[in-house]
Amino acid sequence: MAPQGPSGHLLEVAELAQALQQQSMDVDFVLAELIENAVQSVPAAQYAGITTVFRDGTVQTTTATGPYPEILDDIQQRHCEGPCLSAAWEHHIIRIGDMACDTRWPSYSRDAAEETPIRSAMLFQLYTNRQTMGALNFYAEQREAFDDDAAELGLILATHAALAWNLVRRDEQFRSALASRDVIGQAKGILMERFGIDAVHAFELLKRLSQRSNTPLIAVARQLVESKS
């Protein structure tokens, strides 16, 4: 049986991150379990979530406990401002002691205080790349809920979550590469059968079609496969 209390949940978070590295697991399940254990590890935290922020300003709730993290993300999307956007792109840690009084993101803070009971928040940068950023977020209905000890514990959890997140992204990229290879293989087979050519010439034909139409090769291959079915 897993240990009880914050230290036990912290251990489970570490084990989940390690499990992702060692074997193939359902990504959504692992992230949901990770967030569930994370929120139980931080005293005073009532809700938690992982937010993905895109360079174009799109805000997406990847996983969350309870309804409020997603509502708060929607508010940030609405106003193009908020702590997740700042935690994701500019800072490593952000704390909000009283949502109703915070002046850093006035439109966000106003709507967050009106539409949710959340008053405290603590947000950590998870990862960054050219197109997206991720943030791990903790929320509480109590004002001034997160002290320095909570921030230190949250940083440890964010480190484990960042590891899990990177493994998730790597797995998705690998699966996407496999899917693309399969589609291109099917398209090559269609061309080989239709024109009586070998695999090398079929691939060269796909590349020429891609260049002439200024369309990504995978898109050309997918169109060819779909037209055949």
UniProtKB/TrEMBL annotation:
Pfam families recorded: ANTAR, GAF_2
Residues passing through the membrane, by range: none
Domain ANTAR: 164-225
Keywords for this protein: Kinase, Transcription, Transcription regulation, Transferase
Single GO MF annotation: kinase activity
Gene3D superfamilies to which the protein is assigned, alphabetical: 3.30.450.40, Winged helix-like DNA-binding domain superfamily/Winged helix DNA-binding domain
Keyword Transcription: yes
Organism superkingdom: Bacteria
InterPro entries: ANTAR, CheY-like_superfamily, GAF, GAF-like_dom_sf, GAF_ANTAR, WH-like_DNA-bd_sf
Record protein name field: Response regulator receiver, ANTAR domain-containing protein [Gordonia sp. KTR9]
